[in-house]
Write a structure and sequence with these properties.
Blueprint: E1 11-17, E2 21-28, E3 33-40, E4 52-53, H1 55-72, E5 80-87, E6 92-95, E7 105-106, H2 114-123, H3 126-133, H4 141-151, H5 153-158, E8 161-164, H6 165-174, E9 179-180, H7 181-185, H8 200-206, E10 217-218, E11 223-226, H9 229-235, E12 242-244, H10 249-255, E13 264-269, E14 273-277, E15 291-294, E16 300-306, H11 310-321, H12 333-338, E17 351-353, E18 371-373, H13 381-407, E19 413-417, H14 424-434, E20 437-441, H15 446-458, H16 465-472, E21 475-479, H17 483-518
Helix pairs in contact: 1-6, 2-4, 10-15, 11-13, 13-14, 14-17, 15-16
Length: about 525
């Protein structure tokens, strides 16, 4: 299909339904953000390790953010050609046959399903699960379904579908149940080698019915349906507007920073610190040290994640330790991050291991715990902030090494996105620790841009998602490793960081077991 943007302007909406808010952003065909609407919602923590939300909040925030966007838009709603949704992955809500929620949604970072992980390992086995699904047991949606079956059997047996965030929102917009391969793969029960079907043998081993998952699994960049009258009235968008499939927040995020080559790595410095690279064909890791995402472009995105990422750990640090007070309605995060400039590279030996919500490779352990080690009386607020930055960079380097080994491709460029990417200091520390060129892009809201790129391809503005990304993503700034700092970080990474947790993880488990016994 010809590039329509040569003769006329084009406009699409990218919607990012995230962990704490929904953002709707209007983009033109060059990837320039023209208007934005944003609505926040709560995160519920009814018990330690439990994280929940009400699904209706997602819809109310989506509809409200679109109305806000349209009130600021420089173009009429009739000029908008399509929209696509990206979303917090893994999170799911059980619904009845009327698609009404039966309970709160269970969020991606909820870790209540550790017993179900152990059951899966005993009954099916790690190797078979990974080879069939691309995932080790962990926080994935299917284990949350197993938890429901074990702990809330009435809800489980009344459940018609276990809907992911985009499944629920798409139904509210177009009146049809559809999902995408990129959304479905993170359930932990998609057949990763045949991306449009569920791994029924794995589900059988888990004693979970395949019928609770959405049957219609589409690729990214396809028109799933059109906005119906009721959704039009609630959002203000024209009835009949095409709604295009996209992907989860991380695949959309890396598309939104232009990750189209196998030698690139996208790193999200948001709530979680997730990283993805690109492969043309499925490359499962023999050591199962990463999991597999499916790109909306049709390629595979080997991925790993630090569940407690930049914004979650910085919020924890600020709130628990009261490191910085602010009377402003908008918190000054730039100043908070810049505190780390008062601590030297290497941080005076203060090192953080960021397993505050469990760990992925090589441990795959929801009982893992965060560590900050090497305290001296000389350490200050600045050192604690820098410890978070350096610790996340060390762990990102570790995960990057697993990906390079498993895919056989060296990473030569990192694209950084998410809230933390606004910080020059954060980006330079990551470049120094990772030892490669790091770039940021002009559009900060890269996950929403990734969804808009899918929408632009789906409605024919560009012939495909890769072409749309090439036109709609522009590099803003490049950071190169500082050689002296790089050598220092090499020593700390190889001689300290990579060895430390192995020496204490048994004690961590023992302490956790003692606490459970007395709780």
């Amino acid at each position: 299909m010809a590039d329509q943007t040569k003769s006329s302007k084009a406009y699409v909406i990218g919607i990012d339904s995230g962990t704490s808010s929904t953002r709707a952003i209007l983009f033109d065909e060059k990837g320039q953000a023209l208007a934005e609407g944003r609505r926040a919602y709560d995160v519920l923590r009814p018990q330690p390790g439990w994280v929940e939300q009400k699904a209706v909040w997602w819809w109310e925030a989506l509809a409200g953010s679109i109305r806000d966007l349209l009130s600021k838009s420089p173009v009429k709603s009739e000029q908008i050609q399509g929209l696509a949704i990206t979303h917090q992955r893994i999170t799911a809500v059980p619904v009845d046959r009327s698609i009404e929620p039966l309970r709160n949604a269970i969020l991606w970072n909820d870790i209540r399903c550790s017993e179900q992980n152990e059951k899966a390992l005993e009954t099916v086995g790690r190797e078979k699960i990974y080879q069939r699904t691309g995932y080790n047991p962990g926080i994935w949606t299917v284990y949350k379904a197993m938890w429901l079956q074990d702990n809330e059997p009435d809800i489980y047996h009344r459940m018609h579908k276990f809907l992911l965030v985009q499944d629920y929102l798409m139904y509210r917009l177009i009146g049809k149940l559809v999902t995408t391969s990129s959304a479905a793969v993170m359930t932990g029960c998609l057949d990763v080698g045949h991306r449009h079907r569920w791994a029924e043998d794995i589900l059988e081993g888990f004693e979970i019915s395949p019928s609770i998952w959405v049957e219609n699994i589409l690729s990214g960049g396809q028109i799933a349906g059109r906005i119906h009258r009721e959704a039009s009235l609630e959002t203000g968008l024209p009835e009949g507007l095409p709604v295009v499939t996209a992907a989860g927040d991380q695949p959309c995020g890396v598309v939104g920073v232009g990750l189209t080559k196998p030698s690139m790595l996208g790193v999200n410095g948001g709530t979680s610190c997730s990283m993805e690279t690109c492969t043309e064909r499925l490359r499962l890791d023999p050591d199962a040290n990463y999991f597999i995402e499916i790109s909306p472009m049709g390629t595979y995105f080997p991925e790993n994640s630090i569940y407690s990422g930049g914004s979650s750990l910085m919020n924890w640090l600020r709130e628990i330790f009261s490191l910085e007070e602010s009377t402003q309605s908008e918190y000054d995060w730039e100043s908070f991050y810049n505190m780390a400039a008062d601590a030297p590279p290497g941080n005076g030996g203060l090192i953080l291991i960021p397993y505050f919500s469990g760990a992925t490779a090589p441990y795959w352990d929801l009982n893992a715990r965060g560590i900050m080690t090497g305290f001296l009386m000389d350490h200050s607020k600045a050192h604690m902030v820098r410890a978070v930055m350096e610790g996340l960079a060390y762990e990102t380097r570790r995960q990057m090494g697993f990906m390079e080994k498993g895919t056989g491709v060296s990473i030569s460029e990192v694209r950084m996105y998410g809230g933390s990417a606004r910080s020059d200091l954060w980006n330079q520390i990551f470049a120094d620790v990772l030892g490669v060129k790091l770039c940021t892009t002009k559009t900060v809201e890269t996950t929403a841009l990734g969804a808009a790129i899918c929408a632009a391809a789906g409605v024919g503005i560009y012939p495909g998602i890769e072409e749309a990304a090439n036109h709609m993503v522009q590099v803003k700034k490049t950071y190169l490793p500082h050689e002296t700092h790089r050598r220092l970080y090499d020593r700390l990474y190889n001689d300290v960081y990579c060895k430390f947790y192995d020496r204490v993880h048994d004690l961590i488990h023992t302490a956790s077991g003692i606490i459970k016994t007395f709780s």
